[in-house]
Amino acid sequence: MSDGDMQPSLKLRLPATSANLGPGFDAAAVALDFYLEIEAEAAESFSIDATGRNAERCGEVQDNLILEGYKRLLRRERREIVPLHLKMNNGIPLGMGCGSSAAGRLAAVALADHFGQLNWTSAQILEEAVVMEGHPDNVAACWMGGFVVAACEGPTVHSVCVAPPQDWRAIVVLPADPLPTSKARAVLPPTYPSADVVVNIQSVSLLGLAFANARADLLRVAMRDRIHQPYRASICPLLQPLLVLAGSYGIIGAALSGAGPSVLAVVENQARVEEASAAIRRALGANLEAELAVSRFGVEGGDIYLKQAPRSVALER
Questions:
Q1: pLDDT tens for residues 206-253?
Q2: Beta strand residue intervals within 232-302, DSSP E
Q3: Does the model's pTM come out above 0.90?
Q4: Residue 196: DSSP 8-state
Q5: For a tag on the chain, would you pick the N or C end, based on fewer CB atoms within 10 A?
Q6: Which CATH class for the 169-296 domain?
Q7: DSSP code for 313
Q8: Residues of the chain with pLDDT under 50
């Protein structure tokens, strides 16, 4: 790429997500208000200045999820691989079920689209990232924001989002050690009893309406799951002690966050966060080390803008 063809710097801001939300396995997710932030510019060689969570790992150029996805996509599209310098501030813990891989893959596709001059639509960026990730829920929530339900029809992603209730808060309970998604997937059975499937259909049908209509009274039942959480409980030790808190101490619902090992507790409002946090710490006791990250539910999804441009790039939602 000649100096005259050099693309302006690109800035990305992509939210964390809590996917597989309750009964919404590979279907429902919600955005959270902590972020992966990247400023990228063309350079002579690949380099990363990383700050925030897991900064050492994020700053590694070799086998980097974002850079590998970026280069692989440009090769496929037969475009020049433009070396990049990334300034990265990561607020999403890695391997904790908070959507770090979805944010990373969306970043890879957005960077390839920009520096490879692919001129893709927002829908194309989303669909390419879903192909990389293998399921649509966390990617769609990261890209669109809010509470999202998504389904795939071949390569096409159908998704719809609603703004979560403004009063609700999230407490993400993060254990000390991460859990690879591959390990969390490996414990799932190939088939399920029909009674368990029916319970999940009933619950997930309530889930979207509970978020759309701010029905805190429905959320405990709407977040029941028999498809993935019972099988992952043995490798996600925070789950069982915290599920039983739903319906008390201001906690209106609880579920694994993503594939785990973190647990998401939904709290009725900010005034009850302290009470809910104290109940969570009591339930965990001295034997289970965990960090409690309090968050609002994110209304905005992925934000992309050119550093040299006067305004943000409009995303087609």
A1: 999 999 999 999 999 999 999 999 999 999 999 999 999 999 999 999
A2: 251-256, 263-267, 290-296
A3: yes
A4: H
A5: C
A6: alpha beta
A7: P
A8: 1-4, 309-317
